[in-house]
Structure formats: structure tokens, C-alpha cells
Amino acid sequence: MPATLHRQRLLAVLLLLIAIASIQLGASLAKSLFSQVGASGATTLRLLLATFLLWAWQRPWRTLPPAAIWPLLVAYGSALGIMNLLFYQALRTVPVGLTVALEFTGPLCLTLASTRRLRDLPWLALALAGLFVLLPLRGVASVDPVGAACALGAGVCWAAYMLAGRRVGARLGRAATPWGMAVALLWALPFGTTSAAARLFDPAVLPTALAVAILSSALPYPLEMAAMQRLPTRTFGVLLSLDPVVAALAGWLVLGEALSPAQIAAILAIMVASAGTTLDGQPPADARSDELPVP
Predict the structure, then answer these.
(1) Which of 49, 233, 247, 264 could form a disulfide with 100, with the two C-beta atoms 3.0–4.6 Å apart?
(2) pLDDT digits over 176-201, tens only?
(3) Residue pLDDT, tens place only, 138-165
(4) Residue 238 host element (H or E)
(5) Does 225 reside within a domain?
(6) Bigger pLDDT: 238 vs 168
(7) Residue 288: what pLDDT?
């Protein structure tokens, strides 16, 4: 490998690791807003401020999407908005690391469902084993069932977001993200304004909310875009599989959320299953090339 290409790859890896850490730190910081504005309020503030930042940066109004693409764009933005609402609802009662691991099974199952190869069965079994440990299916619930259901629902929305995002991104390019964020914001506003009311615009809340919007959206988005231009798809997918582990570390450092050894092992199992499917075939990160990073 030429020295210049090698340096570019190393830089891209560093940028992606910063993006992953930024997203999960943002998720942990958002959880600290729940006592002030609730989960729906935190979701609304994040989407509101992130949409404002992206629209100010990219100015997508200069080129309106064609009418034919609007149904798909609405589906894309709706999946993004509902995903964020469910994800933050899950964070109310489930540690950040476990929430991300449960949500991560959405794109992982989408990847595994798209293959018919027998060699993918061990990765599926490993992912299911991790899920079995995390879900409250046994005598003593290890995870709040409502929170777990919200996290899994967010994973389903993530898979739908990926499918719609591929097609919208192919038509609109980078403009897909700000338009999709605007649609997502429309989903969150009724819930956020109802639950938080005037507290949503409390000056004491806005600095933290702005930090969440930057860490979860404005900062990692360009970093991921730059990394994807320099890294092979498989390398990108394997690195993205670190999301649940980084989320667990962020939850521990920011919120003091300690996990049991079994929960840590389950997170690692889901991470290894995701990395295995990436190395062996179609990476779950493939569809994120045209979209904003998610929690």
C-alpha cells in the first residue's frame, strides 16, 4: 500500500472512531436532559437544533426535491423521526449500551435476512444468543420490557431508514439528510411540545441540547462522510460494529451505568455477529453512506 494511501486510511479510521464516540457521547448526554424536558422533549430538541444546523450549513432549499421523490422522502424522514422517539424512550429505563445493542439488531437482522448462505447461520445464532441474554425472557427480568420493546422498535425503524435512505440518497445525494431531518422533526414536535411545553425552550436547557445536537448529528455526519470516502466498505462496517461497546463505555463514564458481566458478554456477541456479517459479505453499515449517523 503506498504511504499516502496508508496515511489516508489511518486518518479515516481516526475520523470514524471520533464520529462513533461523538454519537454515543451525545446519546448519554441526552439522557441527562430527561429530568428537565422528558425523553420526547430531548428528542424534539435534538432534531430541532440538528435540523437548524444542517439547513444553515447545506441550504437544501436551493434545490427542491422533485414531486416523485416526496413519498419516499417522507418514509425516510418518518423512519428517522420514529426511530429517535423510540430510542430516547428506551433510554429512560435501559442503559445506553444495552439500548444501542438492542437497536443494532435491526440492521443486523436486515443484513442476515438478505442472505441465503449457510455460513451466515453462526452469526445469526450469536446475535440471537446476545438478544436472549438482554431481553427479559427469563424468570428475573434483566431489562425493562417496555424499554427493550422501544429499543427493538427503534431497530426496526433503523432498518426501514436504511432501505429508504439508500433510494433517497441515490436521488438527492447529501440533500437527503436535511430534508429527512425536517420530516423527522414534524414527527417529534407534537410529542415534545405536549410533554415538555414551555420547558422545551428554557434557556438553562438549550446549552446541553445544543451539545447533544452537535455531538449526535452535526459533528459525526461530516466525519463519517469523510471516512466513507477513504475506507473500504468492509473496514467501515467492522468499525461501526463498535457502536454498542462505545455506547456502554459512554453510559458508564457519563451516567455511571454499570453493566453485569452477562450483559457485557451479550453486547460483545452482537458486536461480533455484526462484524462477522460485514467481513463475510454485506455490511450493515452499507446503507449509511447517504444518511446522517444515528444514535
Answers:
(1) 247
(2) 888 998 999 999 999 998 888 778 88
(3) 544 568 889 999 999 999 998 888 788 8
(4) helix 233-240
(5) yes
(6) 168
(7) 42
Map grid coordinates 463505555 to a residue.
Answer: 249
Residues 6+ apart with CB under 8 A from 101: 130, 134, 244, 247, 248, 266, 267, 270, 271
Give me the number of domains the chain comprises.
1
Place of cell 418514509: 75
Query: Which DSSP string do the residues of 206-232 spell out, in sequence order?
Result: HHHHHHHHIIIIITHHHHHHHHHHHS-
233-281: per-residue pLDDT in tens? 667 767 877 888 899 999 999 899 988 888 999 889 888 887 887 676 5
Question: Cell 429508504, residue?
Answer: 164
Hunting for cell 469523510 — which residue is that?
A: 226
74 within some domain = yes
Instruction: Provide the residue range defining the domain that includes 19.
Output: 3-287
Burial 201-230 (b: 16+ CB within 10 A, else e): eeeebeebbbbbbbbbbbbbbebbbebbeb
Distance CA 52, CA 161 (A): 21
Q: Do 247 and 96 form a contact (C-beta atoms < 8 A)?
A: yes
| In a domain? residue 59 | yes
Q: What percent of the chain has pLDDT over 90?
A: 33
Give the pLDDT of residue 218: 75
Q: Is residue 121 part of a domain?
A: yes
CB 75 within 8 A of CB 240: no
* Average predicted confidence (pLDDT) for the chain: 83
